[in-house]
């Protein structure tokens, strides 16, 4: 998964632009609103809202903007009602994709996502067609400077699953329900957490060979991620680091 991990790092760097930050803000605000609607506005009682709130704050979303999103979610303020929708499909080279959306118009979003697939060498699939190739996990990123033994001890005690070396960082995986406990355990141990989120990790990967195919894969992923209703795109592609750097250049 090194190629995919490096691509995620590249995306974070690109998000520094004003346009990308604006899109990120909008998506995070929508996630906060939906989390508040589904689980209530109390951060201490709604773990999903707490996670979305922390992500929004980490991205420098203004506090009053977050609070208004929470109030829209709980009904204290009027607002558009968003629905969570998941689409599945295939991309160039047979890669599998899961696209998670929040939309106020299911028909419009479905048609637009289908069009993005078809225009970029992919195709939509029936629900469940590719989901079996992924598993939902909590993932935390920790500085590589942290001693592995210290990290393993803190993670094991809090119910984490595994620690893997991603060259520049450690990647900690947990059951989704244990993400908060592991994050708190790392904080108690004085270990910095660079990022944490619940993701869909592929159980197997599809190797992408050749610059042309790599560009087609990334073009599709970027087109989907750029859609306003799309919150996350998960895929099982694996592009070798050297090829990824060539394409990114």
In short:
By secondary structure, this protein is an alpha+beta fold. The protein has helices at 2-14, 18-39, 47-58, 63-74, 106-119, 148-157, 179-188, 211-225, 241-248; strands at 83-90, 96-103, 123-125, 134-143, 162-165, 169-174, 195-202, 206-207, 230-235, 237-238.
The fold-level CATH name of the largest domain is Alpha-Beta Plaits
Class derived from helix and strand content: alpha+beta
Count of strand segments: 10
Radius of gyration: 18 Å
Strand percent estimate: 15-25%
Q: Number of helical segments?
A: 9
Helix coverage percent? 40-55%
Major sheet description: 4 strands, antiparallel
CATH architecture of the largest domain: 2-Layer Sandwich
Distance between the termini: 20 Å
User: CATH homologous superfamily of the largest domain?
Assistant: YebC, transcriptional regulation domain
- Uncertain runs: none
| CATH hierarchy, class of the largest domain | Alpha Beta
For the record, the count of structural domains works out to 3
N to C succession of SSEs: HHHHEEHEEHEEHEEHEEH
Strand order of the largest sheet: 3-1-2-9
Supply database-style keywords.
Alpha-Beta Plaits, 9 helices, Arc Repressor Mutant, subunit A, 4-stranded antiparallel beta sheet, 10 strands, alpha+beta, globular, 249 residues, 3 domains
Descriptive overview:
The chain folds into three domains: 2-74, Arc Repressor Mutant, subunit A (Orthogonal Bundle), CATH 1.10.10; 83-131 and 205-240, Alpha-Beta Plaits (2-Layer Sandwich); 133-202, YebC, transcriptional regulation domain (Alpha-Beta Plaits). The chain starts with a helix and ends with a helix. The chain has 249 residues and is of the alpha+beta class. Helix 2 packs antiparallel against helix 3 and helix 2 packs parallel to helix 4. It has helices at residues 2-14, 18-39, 47-58, 63-74, 106-119, 148-157, 179-188, 211-225, 241-248; strands spanning 83-90, 96-103, 123-125, 134-143, 162-165, 169-174, 195-202, 206-207, 230-235, 237-238. It has nine helices and ten strands. Helix content is 47%, strand content 23%. The mean pLDDT is 86. A four-stranded antiparallel β-sheet has the order 3-1-2-9. It is globular, with a radius of gyration of 18 Å.
């Amino acid at each position: 998964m090194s190629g995919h991990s490096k691509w995620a790092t590249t995306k974070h760097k690109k998000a520094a632009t004003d346009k990308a930050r604006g899109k990120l803000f909008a998506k995070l605000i929508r996630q906060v609103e939906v989390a508040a609607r589904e689980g209530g506005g109390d951060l201490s009682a709604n773990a999903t809202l707490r996670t979305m709130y922390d992500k929004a704050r980490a991205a420098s979303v203004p506090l009053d903007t977050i609070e208004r999103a929470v109030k829209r979610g709980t009904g204290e303020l009027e607002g558009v009602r968003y629905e969570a929708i998941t689409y599945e499909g295939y991309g160039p080279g047979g890669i599998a994709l899961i696209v998670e959306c929040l939309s106020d118009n299911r028909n419009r979003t479905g048609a637009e996502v289908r069009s993005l697939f078809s225009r970029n060498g992919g195709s939509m699939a029936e629900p469940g067609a590719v989901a079996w190739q992924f598993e939902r996990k909590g993932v935390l990123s920790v500085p590589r400077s942290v001693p592995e033994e210290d990290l393993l001890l803190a993670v094991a005690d809090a119910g984490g699953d595994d620690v893997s070396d991603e060259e520049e960082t450690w990647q900690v995986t947990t059951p989704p329900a244990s993400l908060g406990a592991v994050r708190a355990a790392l904080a108690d141990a004085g270990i910095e957490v660079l990022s944490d989120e619940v993701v869909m990790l592929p159980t197997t990967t599809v190797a992408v060979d050749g610059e042309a195919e790599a560009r087609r894969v990334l073009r599709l992923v970027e087109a989907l991620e750029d859609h306003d209703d799309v919150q996350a795109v998960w895929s099982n592609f694996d592009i070798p680091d050297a090829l990824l750097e060539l394409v990114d250049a």
